[in-house]
Amino acid sequence: MLLWGAAGAGHQEFALTSAVHLMLHYDMPRLHAFYLGSAKGPFIYPEGIVYVSTSRSQAQVLDELRGAFEETYADTLERHLTFLDLSREYFADTVVPAAWSAVPSPLLGGGSSTPTADGGPLRALVEGIDQRAGRQLVVLDSLTDLIVRRGVEAADLLTVLKGLRRRAKEWGAVVYLILSEGVAAPALEQAVLDSVDGVLHFSWTTSPSHSHRQRTMLVEKFMPVLAHVPAEYQGRFVIRVGAKNGLVTTQYERV
Prior knowledge:
This protein is an alpha/beta fold.
């Protein structure tokens, strides 16, 4: 699933909110039902969260979560988290000093250090996720970093995405890929969209009836779900990000 959008429009908040609300199925079933509703299943839930960061540490991610949302969010995520820090591989052979990208060992929940830097960040990404294979929710933060990184070839990146899509189905995993809009060349951006099964597009919009911008989410692609959604419900959702409930949808708009 590609979470694609403008800066600050909500794609990262969606990933974190979704991860926490799904894990509440194990920790606080009643609160999970409050957030995700009473739709009848059966549902298959991820067994944990694998968070892959290309340039930030686990402490930084959790601190940002604590600053943005109430304490329950960071606590819940931390209990179910396996953190894969690719900073060492990402910053290798750059002007960034090695001390800046030092990765402590062992990783939170991982039980081992990061993979070898040989082969660059793409190799580390593939090996790291493969070691943690299973019915997980994988968050790649971020695809944007990999696209702009010197030495990461577009063809190699697209091959990894296609391979990851194939393997995720075999694992029973869900993968969130976070991508900022407009960073990649149009041809590469379209190729990325074609390499995933689902695309949620986040944007800032304005209208004559509002004096302020609002965040919206549009389901651009979702195989095979969209085929079963009536045409009158295929629109965009107005979303809000708050400290108490994370990212929530507030209304539906036809487009």
